[in-house]
Amino acid sequence: MRVVEAGGEQVLVLRHRGKLYAVSNICTHEYAELANGLVVDGTITCPVHLSRFRLETGEVLNPPATKNLQTYKIHVLEGDIFVET
Ligand code: FES
Question: Does the model's pTM come out above 0.90?
Answer without folding.
Answer: yes
